[in-house]
Amino acid sequence: xxxxxxxxxxxxxxxxxxxQAVAGKENMDxxxxxxLVAAGQVVIPANxxxxxxxxCGIGQDLRTKINVNIxxxxxxxxxxxxxxxxxxxxxxxxxxxMDLSCHGPTGAFRRRLVEYSPAAVGTVxxxxxxxxxxxxxxxxxxxxxxxxxxxxxxxxxxxxxxxAGVNRDTAAVFKRNPRLTNIVSRGGALLFAWMELNDSENPxxxxxxxxxxxxxxxxxxxSLGDACRPGCLKDATDASQVHELMVLGELTRRAWERGVxxxxxxxxxxxxxxxxxxxxxxxxxxxxxxxxxxxxxxxxVAPGYDHITSAIGGAVAAAxxxxxxxxxxxxxxxxxxxxxxxxxxxxxSRIAAHAADIAKGIPGARQWDDDMSEARRNLDWPxxxxxxxxxxxxxxxxxxxRPDHEDSCTMxxxxxxxxNMNRVLQGKDxx
Length: 431
Known about the structure:
Elements: H1 6-11, H2 17-26, H3 30-39, E1 42-43, E2 58-59, E3 65-70, H4 79-91, E4 96-99, H5 106-116, E5 120-123, H6 125-133, H7 142-154, E6 159-162, H8 168-176, H9 186-198, H10 203-206, H11 208-218, E7 221-224, H12 239-257, E8 262-266, H13 275-285, E9 291-294, H14 306-319, E10 324-326, H15 339-360, H16 365-377, H17 381-387, H18 391-400, H19 417-425
Parallel strand pairs: 3-4, 3-10, 4-5, 5-6, 6-7, 7-8, 8-9, 9-10
Antiparallel strand pairs: 1-2
């Protein structure tokens, strides 16, 4: 049977290779997964031109997934360094890689990334437009913005962030309700500026049907960007954010009518106690579409440690129903991340995702922890290292401070509670 997208196939009762693969990874009944994809509650980003893809699912009843951001910029245009990050991201078990390139040979880099990456690849076409056309932002036409999106789709990207919700009505709400940090989304700020400079509607909103044509042709998942995400705690859950979210809900339905897969992007910076309510609000207004969050960062005062502030928020968001966490590194707000920054961001996000999966009751999530606890009870160091989120760091810490007794560590030595309980229960001397 002919079909255009994973959603179209699922609605027609077709079990695609991608649905079959994801069901196997998630230990889910394949027909159950097919129903979730058909309903829009799960997306499987899988561009028809991405030959290297090892597909993953994002959404209801699935493991919380992790995204890594890379890309060249005007200040840091080293393509090889970014490709090294891509390889490291795959090694660290990232589920998706977003190319946020905005300068230089973006097309060549994007095609290399797609050719290499088994992880889903995402992009933000509006970032690329200025460099692609070598024009001032104001001079780029609506058709040219769509042209960049089509080129990205042809190149094989699996999902594209489009800030279609910041239309003229949303912009008016923003101007009537001043914010402390205005619009902090790079794509959102570019499109707001373009609308103001040209006194025109957001091209991705005005020509949304043409964008859906492109996405349907290549089976690109639309990631509806949150242009008005809060950039500080004070701006969280305000009029601009909520108004845009209502627009995104309408755009979700329009995409589903065309069989195009959709996920919704969310905040941002947000007080801890508002996160669960925001997830519920998004799921209600956007009809249960998968929710993709940046953080949220739960405090604004920790530059250099924002991988921690975001992991706290990410764990709360995912436990409340968010499906996809965009990693944040220690370099957030400060510089382009290094390889080590990237690793810290991925590990923090994976911990947050796993903690949430335990809370959500994802099959198999808790077993990992139980296996680690058994290895600790048995003082089985190799098994503990093998089960660790970051085995290399665990091995290094152990090697750097060797105990006199191999069945202990240098924190407690022979006074180790685990060691002594094992010994006394076996009828042996303790010390």
